[in-house]
Amino acid sequence: MDVFTVRDLREHTGTLIHDAEKGKLSLVTKRGRPVFLAVPFSKKLIELGLHASLAITLYKEHHLTLEKAAKLADKSLEGFIEILGKLNISIVNYSTKDLLKELKDFE
């Protein structure tokens, strides 16, 4: 997620639009405080609604835990996991290094 100041918008509007076209969220701040969140318009946004779509994006970008994302989406944990499954989004976030360490601990 990119963060822009209100001043940045004058010079970086193109970047904000480019990010939205890529499906990235952008936060705009004024004097260090959040003013608004630019949420890309997508089919997922229409089908799932703003809260669920935002929760999914923030979860995928590792800004929210699974539990907090489910709460933002106003879903049970199981319901949110089901939505992620339908979108082929993994709920397991192991790096290769972490996975190898876990496997080694089982030996």
Low-pLDDT runs: none
Distance between the termini: 39 Å
Instruction: Specify the oligomeric state.
Output: single chain
Secondary structure: helix percent = 55-70%
H-E order? EHEEHHHHH
Instruction: Report the total helices.
Output: 6
Number of domains: 2
| Structural class by SSE content | alpha+beta
Description:
With 107 residues, the protein is α+β, with helices and mostly antiparallel strands. It folds into two domains: 1-40, YefM-like domain (YefM-like fold), CATH 3.40.1620.10; 42-107, no CATH class. It has helices at 6-21, 43-48, 50-60, 66-72, 77-86, 96-106, and strands at 2-5, 26-30, 33-38. The chain has a three-stranded mixed beta sheet with strand order 1-2-3, with helices on one face. A hairpin with a 2-residue loop joins strand 2 and strand 3. Helix 3 (50-60) packs antiparallel against helix 4. The longest helix has 16 residues, at 6-21.
